[in-house]
Design a protein that fits this description.
This protein is 77% helix and 0% strand. By secondary structure, it is mainly alpha-helical. The radius of gyration is 20 Å and the shape is elongated.
């Protein structure tokens, strides 16, 4: 991962806390209302919601785990998936209960909570994780770019679908995207550090074996 993405992850973390601080204030509410008016009722955008459904996230993540185990023997990569998607999903549910912001249209006594948006946050995590490993050993930069642009486009459409169908406020969605990206970069940093350490140990062992002969 290019180092330029590290400060971007810090910026999105600050963005998450900024939304957390301002989302109940009048300017943020006005922005949420404008977004709901702009995107609300757009049928094709509403249909994109299925990309962030829990069943699809589970299926794609499971298939990625099988791929990493059977074809790559990449156990650290499998742990990457567990951390990013599994732990990220659990964290999202904990945060929703913690902040207890009702979703639009729900009376408070029967509210389902939506801050940060699960579709936005976990949708980004599983799509970016999939793109990361699909693009890891792709031979050409152009194909890698296509994979990442596809992941970004699907993530944005999934997030906006929640505004279009009235399930979430725009602030819920932005908070989910910002926090999801920060988590993804942190997990990727851990993974790449471990990979470098593993390759370094392998190199040292091969050097020692050569010296022994």
């Amino acid at each position: 991962m290019k180092r330029v993405f590290y400060p971007l992850a810090m910026a999105t973390l600050l963005g998450f806390f900024g939304i957390l601080y301002y989302y109940q204030q009048e300017p943020a509410r006005e922005l949420d209302e404008r977004a709901a008016s702009l995107f609300g009722g757009i049928g094709w955008l509403q249909s994109m919601s299925f990309i962030g459904e829990q069943w699809l996230i589970f299926v794609v993540s499971f298939l990625l785990l099988v791929f990493l185990w059977a074809f790559r023997h990449n156990y650290r990569g499998m742990f990457f998936v567990f951390l990013a998607v599994g732990a990220g999903n659990a964290l999202n549910h904990l945060l929703q209960q913690w902040f207890a912001r009702p979703m639009p249209g729900f009376p408070e006594e029967v509210a389902s909570y939506g801050f940060p948006s699960n579709h936005a946050m976990v949708g980004l995590l599983y799509l970016f994780t999939l793109a990361y490993f699909l693009g890891e050993r792709v031979g050409t930069k152009s194909l890698r770019l296509v994979i990442w642009l596809s992941a970004i486009l699907l993530t944005v459409l999934t997030a906006l679908s929640q505004v279009a169908n009235g399930s979430h406020y725009l602030s819920d969605v932005l908070a989910g995207l910002f926090l999801g990206y920060t988590i993804f970069v942190l997990v990727a940093i851990w993974y790449e550090m471990r990979e470098r350490q593993f390759r370094k140990r392998q190199y040292m062992r091969s050097t020692e074996q050569e010296d022994a002969y």
